[in-house]
Amino acid sequence: MKDFSSEEFLNKCCNDLLLRSEVRFAGIVNGMGRQVSGGYNKGITPLVDEEQHKMCMGQALELSMSKDLDDPLGLTEYIISKRKKVILISIPFDGCLFLISVEPNANPDLIINQINQYLKEYVITS
Q: What is the DSSP string of the chain?
């Protein structure tokens, strides 16, 4: 059992992800689409800047809308959106989601595996 709160643990996870050079942004978004933890990697110029909150809300909305398919298809494990300048990764957990943007040449599977390891620890610490 860890001796820090869930919020501290999630902040640590975001900070650990930001140590990876290919990670542009790592954050936790609540069910209302508000960023509650995380931020941009050092030296990164945000591509969406003031539009960031819209990106968070959009990802939360996409996840919410996909819940209708949970019974026939199973729970959403992650969503990857590959764009010309960035790859967006959303991983739902506990009513929230990890939202990560990485460089377009990054391997999203490596990031997803790292987050899944964090989520296994999160379940233990919660």
A: --SS-HHHHHHHHHHHHTTSTTEEEEEEE-TTS-EEEEEEPTTPPPSSGGGHHHHHHHHHHHHHHHGGGHHHH-----EEEE-SS-EEEEEEETTEEEEEEE-TTS-HHHHHHHHHHHHHHHHHH-
As assigned by CATH, the class of the 6-125 domain is: alpha beta
pLDDT per residue as tens digits for the range 37-75: 888 888 877 776 655 556 666 777 777 777 778 889 898
For residue 94, what pLDDT band results from cuts at 50, 70 and 90? confident
